[in-house]
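REVIEWER CHECKLIST
Item 1: Sequence provided? yes
Item 2: Single chain? yes
Item 3: Sequence as submitted:
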Amino acid sequence: MPYGLSGDYFPGMCGRYTRKYTWREVRAFLDLKFPEHLDLEPSFNVAPTHTAPIVREGGRGREMAMATWGLVPHWADDPKVGARMINARAETVASKPAYRDAFKKRRCVVPISGFYEWQARDKGPKQPYYTTRADGEIMCLAGLWERWDKGGEPLETYTIITAEANALLQPIHPRMPAVLEREQVNDWLRNGADAAVLAGFLRPAAAGILEAHLVSTRVGNVANDDAALIEPKRGASGALFGQGSEE
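Item 4: Structure as written out by the authors:
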């Protein structure tokens, strides 16, 4: 973790997620061309400054690459700024200096299995929730990537774009990651795509797309990375939070 992230960490917006898909699954789902194979170990607690897969258009076709979470603009003097740039707001991503060039030229998809968000409470610690697609498919988040090269080995980084939360997640947090539908991925990654079309993708997820449930506060510690993190919280009913509330 190059920027010193450790211990208990309670992020805002989209600051923690999981990936438990196989290389074969993501290759088929997103029509990857390169590399021909990649060993992907599951992670149930991906955090800022971790290295994780992104999908982008490369010179040889659609590819998966490993990048560091926390975008470092190519003009930055110090890569440590990436720790503060894990999310880009949909409302300003096309105009903010840190993101506007990447929005035009270096868009990516961040394939995940689900994401965590923390709900503030009147008393006690914040309560984490885990959100997945209701259909169980890989979740494609809209992202941007950059390559920072100021001496030494080039550093590739990414950020996740966030939008206002939908009705399901609004009680937990006011914002959520921008979720792309599978049919939107081609346009999102295509060079020269119309900015208005791209902006139209950066909206709250439609009703019925997502499900969420309470999970253990253990996820707040980045050292914890096991499948038990996504299990419904012990003592809770296990029912999906807000199921049907977006009807």
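Item 5: Key structural point noted by reviewer: The helical segments are 23-30, 100-105, 185-189, 195-201.
Item 6: Recommendation: ____
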